[in-house]
Amino acid sequence: MYIYKTEILTVGTKWFSDKANTKDIALLDQLINDKTAEGWELVTYDYMATSLQVKGAFVVTFRKQQNC
């Protein structure tokens, strides 16, 4: 059985585009690397822009084998 953990990674302010950029991807990579070092496995992620397209965030879900 697995336990799941979902995190929201807020990224930089966007003025002209709501798309993720290379800085945002570097933040996502760092989060994934940190969590895998703790034994978490990436399950899924999604990028969400806000309705005003000023800030966005990644919603990232990890899982880990539950110790019984």
Spell out the key features of this protein:
single chain, 68 residues, alpha+beta, 3-stranded antiparallel beta sheet, 1 helix, elongated
Molecular structure report:
The chain has 68 residues and is an alpha+beta fold. It has one domain. The chain has 1 helix and 3 strands; from the N terminus they run βαββ. Strands 1-3-2 form a 3-stranded antiparallel beta sheet, covered by helices on one side. The longest helix has 16 residues, at 22-37. The mean pLDDT is 85.
Q: In percent terms, what proportion of residues is strand? A: over 45%
Structural class: alpha+beta
Shape: elongated
What low-confidence regions span 5 or more consecutive residues with pLDDT below 50? none
Largest sheet: number of strands, sense, barrel closure = 3 strands, antiparallel
How many discrete domains? 1
For the largest sheet, list the strands in their spatial order. Answer: 1-3-2
Radius of gyration: 14 Å
Total strand segments: 3
Distance between the termini: 9 Å
Helix content: 10-25%
Helices, by number, come to 1
Q: Mean pLDDT, rounded to whole units?
A: 85
List the helices and strands and how they pair.
Layout: E1 2-13, H1 22-37, E2 41-49, E3 55-65
Antiparallel strand pairs: 1-3, 2-3
